[in-house]
Amino acid sequence: MELHNGMLYWPTTFVKPSHTNPAIKGRYDVIIIGAGMSGLLTANALMNEGLSVAILERNEIASGSTSANTGLLQYSNDIMLHELAEQIGEQDAVRFYTLCYEALETLDKIAAILPDKADFIRRPSICFASKKSDVKKLEAEFEMLHRHGFPVEFWNDIIVKNRLPFEAPAALYTMNDAEINPFKFVVYLAEQLKSQGVHIFENTFGNIIEEEGTQQIIKTMHGDFKTSRIVYTTGYGRLPYGKMKGANINRSYAIVTEQNPRFKGWYEKALIWETARPYLYLRTTVDNRIIIGGLDENRAHPAKDEEKMDTMAKALLEKLQGLIPNEQFHAPYSYSASFGESYDNLPFIGQHPQEKSHYYLLGYGGNGTVYSMLGAEILADLIMGRANDDARLVTLDRKYGLKMKMDV
Ligand SMILES: Cc1cc2nc3c(=O)[nH]c(=O)nc-3n(C[C@H](O)[C@H](O)[C@H](O)COP(=O)(O)OP(=O)(O)OC[C@H]3O[C@@H](n4cnc5c(N)ncnc54)[C@H](O)[C@@H]3O)c2cc1C
Q1: What's the gap in Å between 369 CA and the centre of ligand 1?
Q2: Atom of ligand 1 nearest to the CA of 367
Q3: pLDDT in tens, 106-151
Q4: Its pTM surpasses 0.85
């Protein structure tokens, strides 16, 4: 399945190092299928445990939705904390938000040793009320975030007006979030891991799996790969084994404006989003551009039709002009991409309930990168046989998790 269509921005920001597949080893402790954000972060966590790891990627490293990711890293989720508390209870909801907050710290540490720090920069976030009736929601959210010690401020309409180029009835200002160039991050992390012994195989489709006792054999056109544990970090594509019960694949749009050295951005170059669903979001880049995305549609495949792509790019540009009326923008980059969301707004992470040698890390949702990070750590614990009490929050064995019967 094609995951995006149109003109991507991140692959133009640096020259991707060339890649040569290594020789296949006799056996690996773990084989990861999919070399995107989730695959590389999982490989990093498992390599740190001293395990031998190979990653099989059917295309190129970071060529999936990682290259379309707009790179907003936030501890707040598509589902607000007080709404998640209603769904799974306050204690678990707060724990999940804490995991997201901590995942940002870990991403910061990993980015810190990569070239250009993969353009990881700490930013605050501003979530504005799209309409007056959403102010109550922001008040409830502020109360719960504040009570549990998350760094947050409530802004009324006057503060919003004084600090932002547009007006809104209220906003939540949250601190310690970040922006990143996710493509750079994954490509450079791959380079680092390769130099530390992780084997990455591009153009290698990991689809046919045979079992020999406890051994799994992945048959590919380049040869057989042997392991006892397989981790699927296959993103929004069809799973080689199994199906998710509670997930939708939609499509989204994003544009990236041309450089404008005159435009200094807005308040603290915060990551901006809103209470409406689907929401509009925007951020700046290190080279003075603006990325704005949203306008999600209930279709799995990215738009292909040029007229449709044009219409959606224009619509996003108009939204941007509406928010920042005193500047003129043009957008040389625009694309459509598939985007996975789970019914309960939680990612799918863990060991297959029946097929014990299979693990999944599918970070469906707007906070996908943060999910990839916290998922990599949970899987490292599960694979090393350590107890991880957080795993139950995102387990495949839940109402909206994995279909039990293997669906080959
Ligand atoms: C428009 C858009 C904006 C987004 N913005 C944000 C954002 O601001 N912040 C954020 O946190 N998240 C964001 N996301 C989500 C984020 O992109 C995803 O969470 C993230 O890319 C998922 O990474 P992944 O490694 O799981 O998937 P992918 O990057 O898609 O990687 C999966 C890889 O698996 C490979 N693969 C699949 N099947 C096989 C197989 N059988 N054999 C071998 N290889 C296989 C694919 O080729 C692919 O390269 C956004 C997504 C979109 C589409």
Answers
A1: 9
A2: 11
A3: 999 999 999 999 999 999 999 999 999 999 999 999 999 999 999 9
A4: yes
- Whether 170 and 266 map to the same domain: the answer is yes
Give the separation between CA 279 and CA 228, rounded to whole angstroms. 42
Task: Return the ∠ at Cα 316 (arms to 269 and 67), rounded to 5°.
Answer: 70
Residue 101 lies in a domain: no
Q: Is there a single domain that holds both residue 196 and residue 328?
A: no
Which of 37, 296, 360 for a ligand 1 pocket mutation test, highest count of atoms within 8 Å of Cβ? Answer: 37
Q: Per-residue pLDDT tens for 38-52?
A: 999 999 999 999 999
Distance 180 CA to ligand 1 centre (A): 15
Cβ-Cβ contacts under 8 Å for 29 (sequence gap 6 or more) = 46, 51, 52, 53, 227, 228, 229
* Residue-number span of the structural domain to which 390 is assigned: 24-68+183-246+344-394
Q: Output the domain CATH number for residue 190.
A: 3.50.50.60
Q: Provide the token pair at 117.
A: 């720090």
* Domain count within the chain: 2
Q: Ligand 1, from 3, 5, 32, 66: best to mutate by most atoms within 8 Å of Cβ?
A: 66
